[in-house]
């Protein structure tokens, strides 16, 4: 099965909801390569996204100011959803196939974040530092070095925060490349395919960011589920 890669260049995002309130944007980079069929991981990922949306919508104000986008990489790279308030999100049904072009997905995610910040600026909407949140169970199968350099530059300039969750699913998964792409302090390991716990952690974290002091340089810390641990090489 093949998916058509979505080109977002001509996309004109709507004016942000709750336009005068401070927003936080998060683009999810989701690995849907063939190995995600193992142990039903792709189905559990779909369930986790559904739980994320459900949990976020219990706080309507937060769901209006957290803008999410979904980019998948598996065989090709597709924009499943451009930035939209979580209050308006629909649950996608993702299918797993193909390889893991993580580098292209990361470049696309960074470009989308830059465009989203332009939307905020034009609308006069304040915002927190956007997130890139990658979930993968495989090794990148494309040129990822330039994307890693671009991410590091953006993080050093405090333009974005990059996170990566390593899914313990494929026994051949090597974390070597992941540790060269992402800041080691923001690489997590997901045990037991607990995507529900993972997305509860993400929703709580984004909610905490949306309520935090924008003038503070300190990181927002939210207690992770017991199955989510710092990844080790």
CATH topology-level name: Rossmann fold
- The total count of helices amounts to 6
Strand content: 15-25%
Total discrete domains: 1
Q: What is the second-level CATH architecture? A: 3-Layer(aba) Sandwich
Mean pLDDT: 87
Uncertain regions spanning at least 5 consecutive residues: 1-12
CATH homologous superfamily annotation: von Willebrand factor, type A domain
**C-alpha end-to-end distance:** 33 Å
Can you tell me the overall shape?
Answer: globular
Oligomeric state of this protein: single chain
Order of helices and strands: EHHEEHEHEHEHE
Structural class: alpha/beta
Taking all Cα atoms into account, the compactness measure Rg is 16 Å
Helix content: 25-40%
The main β sheet shows up as: 7 strands, mixed
Task: Indicate the topology.
Layout (H helix, E strand, L loop, with lengths): L23 E8 L9 H16 L3 H6 E9 L1 E10 L16 H22 L7 E6 L8 H12 L4 E7 L8 H6 L5 E4 L4 H16 L17 E3 L3
Parallel strand pairs: 1-2, 1-4, 4-5, 5-6
Antiparallel strand pairs: 2-3, 6-7
Helix pairs in contact: 1-6, 3-4
Report what the structure shows:
The protein has 233 residues and is α/β, with parallel strands linked by helices. It has a single domain, classed as 3-Layer(aba) Sandwich (Rossmann fold), CATH 3.40.50.410. 33% of the residues lie in helices and 20% in strands. The chain has six helices and seven strands, in the order E-H-H-E-E-H-E-H-E-H-E-H-E. The chain has a seven-stranded mixed sheet with strand order 3-2-1-4-5-6-7, with helices on both faces. Strand 2 and strand 3 form a beta hairpin. The longest helix is centred in the middle third of the chain and has 22 residues. The N and C termini lie far apart (33 Å). The N terminus is likely disordered.
């Amino acid at each position: 099965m093949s998916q058509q890669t979505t080109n977002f260049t001509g996309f004109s995002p709507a004016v942000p909801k709750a336009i005068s309130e401070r927003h936080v944007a998060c683009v999810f980079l989701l690995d849907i390569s063939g190995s995600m069929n193992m142990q039903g991981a792709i189905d559990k990922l779909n369930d986790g996204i559904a739980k994320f949306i459900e949990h976020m919508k219990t706080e309507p104000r937060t769901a209006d100011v957290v803008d999410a986008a979904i980019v998948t990489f598996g065989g090709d790279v597709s924009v499943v959803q451009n930035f939209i308030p979580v209050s308006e999100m629909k649950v996608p049904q993702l299918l797993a196939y193909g390889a893991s072009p993580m580098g292209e997905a990361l470049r696309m995610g960074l470009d989308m974040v830059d465009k989203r910040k332009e939307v905020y600026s034009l609308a006069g909407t304040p915002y927190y530092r956007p997130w890139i949140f990658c979930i993968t169970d495989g090794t990148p199968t494309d040129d990822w070095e330039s994307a890693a350099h671009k991410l590091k530059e953006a993080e050093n300039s405090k333009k974005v925060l990059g996170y990566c969750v390593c899914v313990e699913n494929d026994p051949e998964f090597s974390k070597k490349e992941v540790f060269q792409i992402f800041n080691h302090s923001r690489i997590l390991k997901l045990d037991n395919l607990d995507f529900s716990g993972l997305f509860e952690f993400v929703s709580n974290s984004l909610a905490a960011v949306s309520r935090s002091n924008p003038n503070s340089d300190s990181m927002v810390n939210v207690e992770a589920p017991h199955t989510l641990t710092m990844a080790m090489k």
